[in-house]
């Protein structure tokens, strides 16, 4: 049976690659994307006829709960404190929006729920970013009635960004030299291509 997918964060580095992979995957008949603003018709690659792009207000995500009955839900939402403007604004995107999405997935009995966290996520971390990521993992993975929930924990994401920060650009330049030395328990800190993260998210889903 062909599946339906719902994607939040479809315009980000991982999200865009994810949607394109879902469109190319013959197991999916429709890919619904909840977005903030309209997208150009050619935004995604081939098979974009599968995409149903819905402009929504993420502050009122519960008003669009019907879309959360999809078989597979993918959440690629994320920002930085600098982009968001404050820790409070960052938490709203990286915790609150994703948590509400998980609650709606539970209510609408979605088949599975996969979202992007971060390597090093820990609810007790002194680092605010990693602490928020860890708190979200605890909140979702301990949520009763939400089957097949999984967090993906990538390190530095590689790929073509619309806007790459200097530290990320520098890390991307040196990653081919550093990665071979990150072995064993350090392997998880290797920079990873966004497309690889998207592929891993799809593999985590239950068909």
CATH topology: Rossmann fold
User: What is the overall pLDDT average?
Assistant: 88
What is the CATH homologous superfamily assignment? Answer: NAD(P)-binding Rossmann-like Domain
Q: What would you call the structural class?
A: alpha/beta
Overall outline:
globular
- Percent in helix: 25-40%
- How large is the radius of gyration? 17 Å
Name the descriptors:
207 residues; alpha/beta; Rossmann fold; six-stranded parallel beta sheet; two-stranded parallel ribbon; 6 helices; 8 strands; 17% strand
What is the topology?
Blueprint (H helix, E strand, L loop, with lengths): L2 E6 L4 H12 L3 E8 L15 E5 L16 E4 L5 H4 L2 H21 L4 E5 L11 H14 L7 E4 L4 E2 L7 H13 L13 E2 H11 L3
Parallel strand pairs: 1-2, 1-4, 2-3, 4-5, 5-6, 7-8
Write up this protein.
- This protein is α/β, with parallel strands linked by helices and 207 residues long.
- The protein has one domain (3-162, 193-204): NAD(P)-binding Rossmann-like Domain (Rossmann fold), CATH 3.40.50.
- The chain has helices spanning 13-24, 81-84, 87-107, 128-141, 166-178, 194-204, and strands spanning 3-8, 28-35, 51-55, 72-75, 112-116, 149-152, 157-158, 192-193.
- Strands 3-2-1-4-5-6 form a six-stranded parallel β-sheet, sandwiched between helices. A two-stranded parallel ribbon has the order 7-8.
- α3 (87-107) runs parallel beside α4 (128-141).
- The protein starts with a strand and ends with a helix.
- The model has no long low-confidence stretch (mean pLDDT 88).
């Amino acid at each position: 049976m062909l599946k339906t997918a719902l994607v939040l964060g479809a315009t980000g580095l991982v999200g865009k690659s994810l949607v394109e992979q879902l469109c190319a995957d013959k197991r999916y008949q429709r890919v619904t994307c909840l977005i903030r603003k309209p997208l150009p018709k050619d935004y995604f690659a081939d098979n974009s006829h599968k995409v149903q792009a819905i402009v929504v207000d993420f502050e009122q995500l519960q008003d669009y709960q019907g879309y959360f009955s999809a078989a597979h839900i993918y959440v690629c939402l994320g920002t930085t404190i600098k982009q968001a403007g404050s820790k409070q604004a960052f938490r709203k995107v990286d915790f609150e929006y994703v948590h509400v999405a998980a609650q709606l997935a539970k209510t609408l009995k979605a088949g599975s729920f996969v979202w992007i966290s971060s390597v090093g996520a820990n609810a007790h971390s002194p680092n605010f970013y990693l602490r928020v990521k860890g708190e979200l993992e605890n909140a979702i993975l301990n949520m009763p009635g939400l089957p097949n929930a999984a967090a993906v924990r990538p390190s530095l994401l590689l790929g073509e960004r619309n806007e790459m920060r200097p530290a990320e650009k520098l890390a991307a330049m040196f990653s081919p030299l550093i990665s071979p030395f990150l072995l064993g328990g350090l392997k998880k800190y290797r920079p990873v291509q966004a497309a690889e993260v998207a592929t891993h998210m799809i593999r985590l889903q239950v068909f």
